[in-house]
Structure formats: C-alpha cells, structure tokens
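Purpose: get a first structural picture of the assembly so the mutagenesis plan has something to point at.
Setup: two entries, given in the order below. No constraints added.
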Amino acid sequence: MRPRRPTWRVACLVAIAALLTACATVPQNRRSHLADPMMSLTDEPLDAARRAKLYDTREGAAGGDGAAAGGGCGCQ
Amino acid sequence: MARRRAVAAAASSARAALLVAALLGPTVAPSRALADDAASSISDARILDAMGAGLHLQSVMTRVTGFDQFGHGYQAQGAPTVLGPGSERETVLEPQAEVVFTQGERWTHRVWIPVDVVTNASPDAIDVMSSASRHVEGGSLDWTSTYKASKTTDLSMRNGLHLENPFRSWDSGFAIRRSFADEATVVGVSALEVFDWFDRFEIDGSRHGHTDRNGTTGSASLTQVLTPTTVASVSYGVTVMEGTLGNTWNSVPLSSGVRGPEILPSERVRHALVGRAAQWLPWNGALRLYYRLYADDWGILAHSVEGQLMQRLAPQLYVGGYYRFHTQTGASFFTTLAPDDGTLRVADSDLAPLESHTIGGKMVVDLPLVGRIRAFHFELAVERYFRTNDLQMNIMSCASGFRF
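Result (structure tokens, whole complex):
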C-alpha cells in the first residue's frame, strides 16, 4: 500500500513561505504602485455597498464578514 | 478699572473671533477672511490651531444603480398552478450618496445615505406583497466617525437607521484598526449589532402584529504589503442571528396541495473567511483576486471566487473587467414540496443549492481639477448576473462625485 502524500504539509509550507515574505518590510517609497486606485483590495465604498446588497439579498450566504446580514425585505 | 475693562473686552472679542474662525474658517472662505482680519492680534499658530478644529470636506460621491430582474422561485405565489414557482420579476433603482469630511486633525466622518426604490416586485402574488411590494421605498442613514488615536491606531464608531414601508432597522458598531511596520501590516477588529423590527404577515396577506430579529457580527482582518507590487488580506467573521429570520410572507408548497408559511429556526450562526489579493501588472494593469468561504448552521456551505483585471489607459482613466462565481449548498430544510407536518421548511430560491455567475465591466475616470476641488470622479459599470435556479439580472451603475 502506498503511503498517502502529505499534501497538506506542502500547502502549509507554501503558506508559511508566503507569510515569511512579509517579514521584510517594503519601505513606503517603494509602494507607489500600491497607491493606485486599481490596486485597492476593496471596491470603492458605494460600489462595494451595491454589490454587497446584490449578493446578500439573492444568495443565502451573506454575513459573517463584517457586513450586516439582514436588513430590508427579502433578506434572511 | 476702565483700562482693565478695555483689556477684558479686547480679550473677549479676540476669543469670539477665534471661535468664529474655528467654526467657519475652513469651510467658508469669505467668512474666514473676515475672521482672520478680526483676530489679527492673535498669533498665527493659535489661528492655525483653531482652524484645524473646523470641518473640511474630503469628498462627495453619488451613485445610481438600476437592477432589472427576471426569474421564478417556489417561495413566490402567483404561478399558474398553486404549487408552481411564482414570479421574481422586479426592478430596483438604488441611489446612494456619501459625504466624507474631517473635523480637526483626528476625526473623519462618513455619512452614507442609500435609498432603494423597488417596483414590480411579486407582480402576480396573491399575498400581502401583491399591493405592498409593487412599490417599496426604503432608505438608510449611516454615520461612521473615525478617531485617529495615534499615528498607528484608528478607532471607529458606526450608527445607522434603515426605514422601509413595513420595516425598521438599527445598527451600531465599532472598529479598531492598528498598523505596524510602517503601515505594511494592518490589523483590524470590528463588532456590529443590527436590530430589525418589522410587520409580521400571514401568507394570505393578513397583518399579524410585529416581530423582530437581531444580529451580532464580530470580525478580524489582517492586511499585509507583501512586495512593492503585491498586497493581500485575510479576514474572518462570525454572525449570530436570533429572532424571526424570514420575511414572514414567503410561502412553501405543501404535499397537501396548498401553500403554507415558512418554518425556520430562530437562530443562525454564520461564518465567513475571506481572502483578497492585488497584484500590479507591468503593463500598467492590476489583477485583483477574491475568495470567500462561508458556512452556517442551516447547512449552507458556499464558495465565492472573483477575478478583476484592470488596465490603465491614461493617467486619468482605467477600465476593468470582472467575473465572479458563487456556489452554495442549500439549507438542510430547503424543499419545493414539504410535508404538512410542521417540520422546518423553506422554499426560498436564495436558500436553494445554486450556482451564480456575474460578469461585468467598468470604466473609471478621475479628472484632476484646479482650485478647491481636487478631482472629478466618474464611473460607469455594467453587469449581468445569472443563477442556475432561474434568476437573471441586468445591472447598470453610474457614479460621480468630487474629491477635495
């Protein structure tokens, strides 16, 4: 019988390696690309709100991520 | 004595001028000039300190979104047969406005006013919504104040009120955000309490007093600058809901050949784990990735993934395209034909096993201006949303505003 490949260990190692890259702080003067609005991790607030409303009221998988769940008719 | 009175009067008028300058100076230029003249005997440093305590407009944004929805769901009445799926046709017009302003050097306020105008919802229903939801208007006022406690720490308070024809909702929350390593790492925690109070209806349309529910959400997030061109974040949140967790007018087809009301648990615990990443691309582009894992104790397990590809065409203009895929298992008690025995049951198409796709594109313009207005912002987005259980929607959204 072949031993099971420890894929979860590989995944953990990759995750740890990715996190370790954060140990070297990127100086402020090298973050010009990150300041571009295109690089924002979240949408512009009003855009994010209308998208959240769309998904929260049509998919029963809203909430849990800091946004209010419920509110308004049709929400559960 | 007269000289002392004169000195006191001068000091009093100087204090008054300082107060006027503090309250009006930064926002009303002519008044500021007058106040500056009146307080000319006060040192520049004191005047600047006083002006720093005034209000400064940061941005004014507006957005209008239109949703045009088609589809059918078993929770809706009005189908040709009693037990068949009814129409979920509706159109929604959703204007929003947002004003951000600072108060002094430490406070930032955000006032957000979203409005929903829903028309044509459940047009063929025989329930209460046959009249009420043909035209429903709802609006919210949400105020968030952020206090910069130190160079690395922000504290936020949030309060909101939502009003809708048969519905009232209040929310209140706070958040703490702290940065480390020259803002390369940002850690945040937040809590939010939502209380809903609304009319209870029977599925035949009769009103049956009021009912309520509340939801408590706690979340934590970590954002990390990984490289000069890569940033990522991960967040986890849990929401605990109690009370009436349905809208009370949804119905369920029963095996006895009639429709009955939903029977839902009175509690729900929802977990969400979210990962985000943004990567700068060498051709003046950006790739944004999103993944969300969701699970709750109603039996729903969901995965959502999204990719957004942005391309800057000019310093003031970029365009983007995006695709989102969502898949979820249904609630464990979801059914389209329930036994008439009083066990948990729901036929809401939102709680069914489903897959959904969103495909869209947007164009964003930020025109720099001269004078007090720093830039004009304009955005146009078009989307198509469709689900595997008979729901489609066309969406158009347009935003404009000014940054100061």
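Confidence is low (pLDDT under 50) at residues 1-40, 122-132 of chain B.
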